[in-house]
TrEMBL record:
Pfam family, one: HTH_30
Residue ranges of domain PucR C-terminal helix-turn-helix in the record: 307-361
InterPro entries associated with the record: CdaR-like_regulators (IPR051448), PucR_C-HTH_dom (IPR025736), PucR_C-HTH_sf (IPR042070)
Source organism of the structure: Streptosporangium subroseum
Lineage of producing organism: Bacteria, Bacillati, Actinomycetota, Actinomycetes, Streptosporangiales
Region (Disordered): 59-81
Protein name (record): PucR C-terminal helix-turn-helix domain-containing protein
Positions of transmembrane segments: none
Length: 367
C-alpha cells in the first residue's frame, strides 16, 4: 500500500481498494502527520505531484513523488482540486493523462487529512509551539501578506516594534524555553524557534515599554539565569524583522563568557558590525593585535591582565579602571605593564587603548 496502491495498472475502484485508501489516510491522521509529511505521503501514494494552499499563511507547497517540496504558484488549471472546510485552503493533485479510478476518493481523504493537519498546526501556534511560523517571519524571502499573517498568528500586532534575539543552541537546554518564560514573566510577548545552531527569539515589549529603546530589553535579557549569551538585533517592524535577525546573529558573534560580554546589542556595535559581515575570519586571525591578545590570554596571568586591559579601555584612566575592578591603582598599573609587554604597544594614550579595544572585540570573531 505504501506508494504502490495506485501504480498498479489493473487497479479498479472497488470497495476493497477504497477501504485501503481510507485506511492509509486514517493512519496518517492517527500518527499526527504534519502538513509536509502528509504531502509527501500522498505524493508517494498517487505517484504524481500534489499540493496544498494554506489560506492562513498564504503559502503554496507542491511535492513530487520523490518527496521534493517547493514553493508553488496557484494550482494548475488541469489539476484535480478540493477545497478544505472552514476556508482553510485547497489541495490538488496533478495527474497526467487519464484519471485513476480511485483519484476521487484519494482527493477526498487527502483533503480531510489536510484539514486535521492544518487545524493541529494552528492549535500549536496558539500555545506558541510552532517554530515554522517564526522561521517564516525571519526569512528575507517571505512576502508581505504571508509575513503579516504569520505575525498575527504568532500574536504580534501589525504595528508592533519587534526585536530578534539570537542565542546558541549548543545543548538541549537552549531551546528558547527559559528565555520565553523569563520574558513573559515580565509582561512581554515572545516566540522562539531553533534555527540550526542558534535559537531565535522574537520579542515585543510590554505596553509600558513600547515607547522605550532597546536598552531596557538588554537589561531584561541580562537578567536571564545561568550563562546565556545573547545577541540583540535592531528594532524592526514588518519585513525589516529579517534584518533584525541578521543583526542579532552578528551581535551574537561578539558575545563571550565574560559577564560584560554575555549580552551584545547590534545597535552598540557601530562599525564593528562591518568586520563580522564583510571581513573573512582568516584576515581577522592574521591581525598582529588579535594574535597578541590571544597570546596574552594564554599566559598564566592572562585572565587578570585581560581584565585590567578591558577596564582601562572602558574607563580611560588607570585610577578609574582601578575603582571599577576594586584594585589599588598601583596594582592595576602593574597588570597593565605586563599586558603592554605582550601586546607590543602602549596603552597610555587613546590610540593604544583603541587598538586594544578593537583587538578585544575582534578576537571574539575567531572560530
Amino acid at each position: 500500500m505504501q506508494g504502490l496502491l495506485l501504480r498498479l495498472s489493473a487497479l479498479d475502484a472497488d470497495a476493497e481498494s477504497a477501504v485501503r485508501v481510507i485506511s492509509y489516510f486514517d493512519s496518517l491522521v492517527r500518527d499526527h502527520a504534519s502538513v509536509s509529511a502528509l504531502l509527501q505521503a500522498t505524493a508517494r501514494l498517487v505517484q504524481c505531484p500534489v499540493g496544498l494552499v494554506d489560506s492562513v499563511t498564504g503559502r503554496r507547497t507542491r511535492v513530487s513523488p520523490g518527496g521534493a517540496a517547493e514553493r508553488s504558484g496557484p494550482p494548475p488549471e488541469s489539476a484535480a482540486k478540493r477545497s478544505l472546510g472552514s476556508a482553510l485552503g485547497v489541495v490538488w493533485m496533478e495527474r497526467e493523462g487519464q484519471a485513476h479510478g480511485l483519484d476521487e476518493i484519494v482527493l477526498e481523504r487527502f483533503a480531510g487529512a489536510a484539514e486535521v493537519a492544518l487545524e493541529r498546526a494552528a492549535a500549536q501556534v496558539r500555545v506558541g509551539d510552532d517554530p515554522a511560523l517564526v522561521e517564516l517571519v525571519l526569512s528575507a524571502d517571505t512576502g508581505e501578506a504571508e509575513l503579516t499573517r504569520a505575525l498575527r498568528l504568532l500574536g504580534f500586532g501589525p504595528a508592533a516594534s519587534l526585536w530578534v534575539l539570537a542565542t546558541p543552541s549548543d545543548d538541549d537546554r537552549d531551546d528558547g524555553t527559559s528565555a520565553i518564560t523569563h520574558l513573559r514573566a515580565g509582561g512581554h510577548h515572545a516566540r522562539a524557534a531553533r534555527m540550526g545552531d542558534v535559537v531565535a527569539v522574537l520579542v515585543s515589549l510590554g505596553a509600558e515599554r513600547l515607547s522605550e529603546t532597546v536598552e531596557p530589553l538588554a537589561e531584561i535579557v541580562g537578567r536571564l539565569p545561568g550563562t546565556w549569551r545573547v545577541g540583540i538585533g535592531p528594532s524592526a517592524r514588518g519585513a525589516a524583522v529579517a534584518e533584525s535577525w541578521a543583526g542579532a546573529r552578528i551581535a551574537l558573534r561578539f558575545t563571550g563568557p565574560h559577564p560584560a560580554d554575555r549580552v551584545v546589542n547590534w545597535a552598540d556595535l557601530g562599525a564593528l558590525a562591518l568586520f563580522a559581515a564583510h571581513v573573512p575570519q582568516e584576515a581577522i586571525a592574521g591581525l598582529a593585535d588579535v594574535r597578541a591578545v590571544e597570546e596574552l590570554s594564554r599566559r598564566p596571568y592572562g585572565a587578570e591582565a585581560m581584565e585590567a586591559v578591558r577596564a582601562l579601555c572602558a574607563e580611560g584612566s588607570v585610577r578609574r579602571a582601578a575603582v571599577a575592578v576594586h584594585l589599588h591603582h598601583s596594582s592595576l598599573a602593574a597588570r597593565i605593564a605586563r599586558a603592554e609587554a605582550v601586546l607590543g604597544f602602549s596603552l597610555a594614550d587613546s590610540a593604544g587603548r583603541l587598538r586594544a579595544h578593537l583587538a578585544l572585540q575582534l578576537v571574539r570573531l575567531r572560530p
